[in-house]
Amino acid sequence: MKLGLVQRLDRFCGRFLPERRVFLKSDTDTRFVRLSPTAQVMGIGVTGAVLAWTCIATAVLVIDAIGAGNFREQAKRDQESYQLRLNTMAQARQDSITLATLAQERYDIALKQVAAMQQELLNSEVRRNELAAGLDVLQNRLRDTLISKRKLDQDIEKLRLALAGEGQAVSPMGAADQDMVAFLTTALNDTAAERDQLIKSAQSAQAYSQELELELRLTQERNEQIFRQIEEAMVVSIEPLNKLFKAAGMNPDRILDAVRSGYSGYGGPLAALSSRGTPPTAEELRAMNIMQSLDEMNLYRLAVDKIPFYHPVQSSHRFTSGYGKRWGRKHEGADFAAAHGTPIYATADGTIVHAGWSSGYGRLIKIKHAFGIETRYAHLSKIRVKVGQKVSRGERIGDMGNTGRSTGTHLHYEIRNNGTAVNPMNYLKAANDVF
Asked: For residue 347, how many other CB atoms are within 10 A of its CB?
């Protein structure tokens, strides 16, 4: 049955491809090979399959080459666009730092002006109190003088009435009486002149007091304007920093309390406000509030250096993988790809607790930061720090590589809060929104 099927197939193919013989001739013999129609069909099929496979493979290679070229061009354009964006962000961050520095300088100048105005205000108050006391003394003297004058006027009037009543019966005044009258007249004139002088002095003192009150009011208005500008500057400066910590999922009050406990200090320009034993004035309370706001801003600045808001890769790079599930497993960090040997930087102040090989991480660096935060930098090609070393924010700690369980050159970056992995992009995005 099987043989019959082959024969029928051979007979069918013989209609289109008759049997052929290939002769092989040597010096002593001649042989031939018989090519049946079925063998010819199989040979043609194999040849056609080889040709088809060759054409398909060539087409696939050509398409891959064209696609790879397009991908390289697209990657190059993406890299240029990302580099431009990085440069723009860096320029914006530099502008923000410059503005913050200028604001700090303006605040220092305004604080000095406030201190000078406060001193001038105190001096004016002292002068006003002295003038008020002098005015009281002058008024008392004037009152005593008026009483003396009134008494002398009464005595003179009595003497004149007595002289007029006696008429001719009274003998002419003697030398002693004339001297008494002359003395009384001179005393009266002197008293009147002194009274006029005291009145002029009192009027001058009152005018000077009014000038001091006007100057005091103008000084208070200038102080009010300065205080208002400084308070607005404090709000504008502190509010973005407060949002920065909230965006990273952190409690600003708890962070500031922790930083304050490590940087305790006392004294300053307003430390002597309570030395006079009197309650502080409204201006002094506002100045104290501004100093507290400035202290809070300094605490924010210290906290920013201790929390990983800095980007570990400052060169041109690509974001290749984020935090979350990947290939059925949890990816506990973020991946950034760049050229082999790209510098890697510490994202916050801290202490190196691991610097060496760690199974799937490859060459790994762990940095312990404040507030229970730890950062990890994996797959490095080179480690530039040692265990126990103190590093600062922005300090170079290693080079990007492809060590450990890795499919290409990149940095695997992790942030752990009290041992639990969190999304690093929350910190980096919060920093980009503020800085």
From this structure: 27
